[in-house]
Amino acid sequence: MGGSGRVPCRLLDGFAPGSRVPVHFIDYSPYFGRPGIYNEDGQGYPDNGERFVFLSRAGLEFCRATGFRPDLIHVHDWHTAAVPVLLDTAYRDDPVLGDAASLLTLHNLSQQGIFDKRLMDVLDIGWEPFRICGLEFHDRVNLLKGGIYHATLLNTVSPSYAREILQPEFALGIEGAIRDRKADLSGILNGADYEEWNPETDTRIAANYSERRLSGKTLCKEDLQRSLGLPVKPDVPLLGMVSRLVGQKGIDLIAGAAHRILELDVQIALLGSGEPWAHAFFEDLARELPDRFACRIGHDEALAHRIIAGADFFLMPSRFEPCGLTQMYAMRYGTLPIVRATGGLDDTVEDIDEATLAGTGFKFRDATAEALLGAVGRAAHMFRNNRAALAGAMRAAMAKRFTWAEAAERYEGLYAEAAKRREKMRRETA
User: In the prediction, which pLDDT does 244 show?
Assistant: First the structure.
């Protein structure tokens, strides 16, 4: 660990649940024996740079200690983005790791791992990689930017997000690095866990149902309304939202449109936690309009299932969404998503066509309260005036599947391509 010296750690070995796939955990309690993974009380740990450089380096040292020669190392976001940098520098000529390719998956560019340049002393790779086309970012270390320049290949968790991050609005200062690596960037949509999220078998909801027998969904709506203290009104559209209450999720759009949405004679059930102003705003709204708006601040897995099963529509007006999973869950439960057309939301939700009525949800493009209000209005109009079309859209949404089998096949292709690229690079520099 450079200036920090050698740091001892333990290795805990196990297997992925229900399989013989080996899993190894790095154990060092001074860094990882804390209440939070990344932060505590909303504040990032001040030594996060050292913590995650340690994790990256320990993972590589595990390979050397055991003689495990990986063909490829797949890393995620800034937290392990030091791995491609280290492979190209400290381990470039290592007999165990020197031939390993790397794939860096970008999940969310709003977090980049930016630290004081003193972190270079911890990385212990010299100062040559501290440059514009590397780790340097406004005279600080940007681990994600360094990983982008050094990884063999890059991908994001949806095709649309891969295109969006070429723009300053989404790349947040490192669009130049991403454009430099555009030819090596692709998007692979995440898969959903349909064993956990299945209305036919879900034990957390009031009644099970399927696209062939939707009657159970009516009971789920009644249960949700009653449990949240909302009037039980089957003929009133019920909008659900399960989300972090932060800017990325478009929570300000919800706040800006909330009163006008509720004037459409709809109900809203919200579950989530995040920014303090949002807690105060939505709790005040629930007190002001208890017959139309209910909120629960915090995390409640059982309630999340009940909201997704019991609501008629699911609100997800994200300003950006690299992939998103809850819209996939909502569709499986016949709860039509109302989403901003961005990232994975744009890739997974088909906007309902007013002429043909084909589609699986309602999309809007502009990140404004007015655009969100318009989409909610379209949904409420269909609920009240065309129940047959609504039922058809629900069944179409429930039939959609976004599986890991398809994603895994594409990742396997990326792994093979990365290994081939790395081998070619090694030959050319030999």
Answer: 94
